[in-house]
Amino acid sequence: MIVVVEGKRRREMDAAELAERMSSAGTSRVVIDVGTGDGRFAYAYASAHPDAFVVGVDAIAERLEELSAKAARKPAKGGRPNVVFVRATVEDLPSELTGVADEVHVLLPWGALLVGAMLAEAPVMAGIAGLAKPGAEVVVVFNAEVWEDSTPKDMADLPAVTVDCVRSWLAPRYAAFGLDVLDAHELSPDEVGALSTTWARKLAHGRHPKFVHLRARRAPPRPPAP
Ligand SMILES: C[S@@+](CC[C@H](N)C(=O)[O-])C[C@H]1O[C@@H](n2cnc3c(N)ncnc32)[C@H](O)[C@@H]1O
Question: Where would you tag: which of 11, 118, 155, 191 has the fewest CB atoms within 10 A of its CB?
């Protein structure tokens, strides 16, 4: 069952209600933002793309309260019927979201989400890949600056994220989860600032901002062995 955040309220949403929300919003394209934080990216994406149905997912519900309350209002007051906010960890996502996404975003992850995405560890990778339809695009934006000075102890031994390490080390590991890495490049601070997330805005003004953008495609299911 999906746990939806609507302001201070938490309630359950089943697959039928999710399908009904999608069809009444008149949308066929589903975009999921994993580790959405305060939901700014999900809300902005839903505003800019009324043709998309957006699901913002985060482990911490409290930060979702403000924008989820706004999204539940009438459209003239900031309401966005084409976005929902869900409390869930990437390691334990509701089954209703399995294979529904045309696009998955993981923007400036931190904590368990960062470690799992950086080291391509199950169950984080299985969670991310499991959301995507075959052919769906998966975008991960890493903050490579975290390794410089303010890194928490439990992340201090992680290797630095670089374009080379994504291409040579991470890409084959993502492929093992059915995600074919198509491209990896550094983003300029301006491009990060344009991502419309709260952390992007904060980090784009850091001392040595450095961000790596990874784009992957969910491979079609393998045909059964003859
Ligand atoms: C640095 S914040 C970035 C938030 C947002 N994407 C942004 O750019 O503003 C990282 C987010 O990842 C979430 N997160 C960390 N581990 C997670 C997990 N295992 N499952 C779901 N969300 C997680 C945190 O709760 C936090 O909101």
Answer: 11
Closest ligand 1 atom to residue 143 Cα is 1
- How far is residue 100's CA from residue 203's CA, in Å, rounded to a whole number? 31
CATH value at residue 46: 3.40.50.150
Cα 110 to ligand 1 centroid, rounded to whole Å: 6
CA of residue 54 to ligand 1 center, whole Å: 16
Amino acid at 32: I
8 A C-beta contact, residue 8 and residue 42? no
User: Strand pairing of 179-187 and 29-34?
Assistant: unpaired
Main-chain phi, psi angles of 54, to 5 degrees: -110, 135
Q: Where are the alpha helices (DSSP H) in the chain?
A: 15-24, 40-48, 65-71, 111-118, 124-131, 163-165, 171-175, 189-193, 198-203
Please choose, from the candidates 83, 77, 78, 36, the residue with its C-alpha nearest in 3D space to the C-alpha of residue 60: 36
Of 97, 123, 153, the residue that ends a domain is 97
pTM: 0.95
pLDDT per residue over 46-100, tens digit each?
A: 999 999 999 999 999 999 999 999 999 999 999 999 999 999 999 999 999 999 9
